[in-house]
Please model this.
Amino acid sequence: MPGIGVRYDLATREQGRVSVVAHRDGSRILSAYHQDDPDACALSLRLSSGETAALIDALMPTHHSPNLLSTTGLGLVAERIELSATSYWNGRLLGDTRMRTETGVSIVAVLRRAEAVPSPTPGFRLAGGDTLIVIGTREGVDAAAAILGRE
Model:
């Protein structure tokens, strides 16, 4: 969802449907749909970033994952930014974005189709449809999204 965030859809084992829209400001919209009509929303909740963190902790307590880095207390965010097919950066080198210099954000991986490229080098050639995993401050990630959204 360019300019808005990322949408995640989940079908449960009991054929239920849930979606989450993750906005760039950290808020989320959690929606559940009627089983007999997948277009009819039965529940929609707008959650602040703090409420989202509390829900995540309730679903997956951090004490069960001691090796995972929690970035929220450090003032960092990690997000996925999708590169559109019409992006200015489609076919260009990652280093040409000057991402770290311009925003302070690190691109820690690129997801392309069914593969992941960890720690891509400046010589990595970007392609439309790539999803870049970035980490940095909220402001830096927003700036990165604006740069990568350039058409």
In short: The first strand starts at residue 5 and ends at 11. Residues 72-148 form a domain with the Alpha-Beta Plaits fold (CATH 3.30.70.1450). The helical segments are 49-59, 99-103, 138-148. Residues 5 and 24 are 5 Å apart (CA to CA).
